[in-house]
Amino acid sequence: MDQFIFLAAEESDLSDRACFCKRRPFDMRLLDYRNVPVLRFIRPLRCDRACCFCCLQARILAQELEVQAPKGTVIGSVRMDFSLIFPSFSILDSAENLVLKIKGPLCTLSFCCEDVVFEIFTANGATKLGHVIKIYTGFVQECCTDADNYSLVFPFDLDVKIKAVLLGALILIVSASSSLGELLSDRAVKFP
């Protein structure tokens, strides 16, 4: 059953889109079916070179996305961690305490003809709680379009604020991965 849940609308400068493409800073608002803002995702301009140790080791340079409630209250944030091989992200609460970890695969390219799975773990890494999957949609769609399909799975009883931050993690994973296209381009993104 298809049901409209949210519409994501990005605000970014034309110069940022032209100069930084998918690495650009943005302010994205998540609107409900009545066009009322429910969440805000803010991504500052940061280095995106995983091989550049200085960028990912320095907190002020690491890829990050902040999640806010409509009135500007910080709910939490997502931060890309330093890793030589596997992409890794930290899910932080509003006090910047580590709540969850996301660990990606060695190959994040969808032309490997299979789904790309990012596993969601507890903060200590002991228990798997869910996953973010970029669903492989076939050779033609993967090679000839910018259209991508994702699945985000997490426990039903997870704190609603952390669920919102996980949605932000999905957005950061898409925008930080060079192989995942220009999903966050000049157009609005619909979450059916």
Automatic annotation (TrEMBL):
Q: What does this protein do?
A: May mediate accelerated ATP-independent bidirectional transbilayer migration of phospholipids upon binding calcium ions that results in a loss of phospholipid asymmetry in the plasma membrane.
Query: What organism does this protein naturally occur in?
Result: Haemaphysalis longicornis (Bush tick)
Quote one Gene Ontology molecular function term: phospholipid scramblase activity
Which taxonomic lineage does the organism of this UniProt entry have? Eukaryota, Metazoa, Ecdysozoa, Arthropoda, Chelicerata
InterPro entries reported in the protein's UniProt record? Scramblase
Q: Which cofactor does it need?
A: Ca(2+)
Q: Which domain of life is it from?
A: Eukaryota
Which Gene Ontology terms of cellular component type are present? Answer: plasma membrane
Offer one Pfam family short name for this entry. Answer: Scramblase
Q: Know the name of this protein?
A: Phospholipid scramblase
**Which family is annotated?**
Belongs to the phospholipid scramblase family.
**Entry keywords, A to Z:** Calcium, Lipoprotein, Palmitate
